[in-house]
């Protein structure tokens, strides 16, 4: 209850008062702060997206390129309907609630309960059902989730994670060496060919070697042989998921549509390779995370489930966020210079490096939508929300709203610097790209360390320049990705 009370103090202020409700574990009453009851409006009062008979709002989604511009559709809804609206679910009386407010987002997390549940892509849950497939933390619920999450909290969220920093630095140094050898000319900018593939391999290698506990060894060549295909097939999972957000997966499977066949094959192959990687890691008997998980009496089956999904999720999201950060820096020479000035006096954890990562996640949030399924009836934004309603924070829209961030389209890492009193410069509302609460991203500390380290090393060694001839936009592939390959130009800095 301490965490819940802390959240309440952050978001309710003086215009809220206290009432009683039954907590989500049904075991005891809890003091809970909400808006004054005289302002509470019924669920039906929430503005609703325009819906057509039979097809609901599907036409808008189809017009968005089968989900590729879903973030824009939802952002336009917020501009028209306000910070909270409901989207009818085709073929049922249910609704999705979308939020474009950091304050309402905090209220959403207050209600998440002891066993938070989040909406999952229908294609992923259907695959698991069809194949009787048990998955990792992202798919676990209730007591199974809580037990394993507590273990992984102790492993991944601790402060003295020296093994992680050692692995991150070694793998990052290898990437810098590769770029120096293959792409860097003496005087002109050279384009890093296969930028995403390069970053993806770097990200997965960090996770795999951290799992094992070393970056060198006899069996590492077995893992290295698996990584190129793994990198490609994981990207296919996300690519093939996007159309199945529009086309019902049950329909696609029943009528044997090619998109379901592609999705099914890519997930199957991804899990096969991930399990092979864990098998090799277990045989190596190293001093990495696998050993720690075994020390907590985790079964081999659970270890495989957790690590397979960790590699799939963290590899993709960390690589794309790093790519977006390089994209933003490559168009801002002055910001590159400011960061290098700080790097001359420090190591990786400089304020502007941290600000760069936070700005990248604000402008291009990998988790474009973060949601919870309310376990109890709640009040969000003065509206009464029924229990079991999916509530979704529109992270792309929140990050680009001038109500939350001044000059929202400007890349400004300095907005995340703190003054002598510890207050943020020029930030009206905090951003929460990893979510908050007990089900926030378990790999956030590791992801931040990885991105801080690689960006620092890249900026120490290279000047960056964007070489794309046409503008680069954002498209949805379940996560936010560039609309075209980013052509990153690098030039070696004189020592």
From TrEMBL:
As cofactor, the record names:
heme
Q: Which UniProt keywords apply?
A: Heme, Iron, Metal-binding, Monooxygenase, Oxidoreductase
A molecular function (GO) held by this record is: oxidoreductase activity, acting on paired donors, with incorporation or reduction of molecular oxygen
**Origin, by domain of life?**
Eukaryota
Q: Which amino acid positions bind heme, per UniProt?
A: 441
InterPro entries registered for this protein in UniProt: CYP11_CYP27_families (IPR050479), Cyt_P450 (IPR001128), Cyt_P450_E_grp-I (IPR002401), Cyt_P450_sf (IPR036396)
Task: Offer one Pfam family short name for this entry.
Answer: p450
- Indicate the family of this protein: Belongs to the cytochrome P450 family.
Q: By what name is this protein known?
A: Cytochrome P450, mitochondrial
Originating organism: Pseudolycoriella hygida
**Primary gene name:** sad
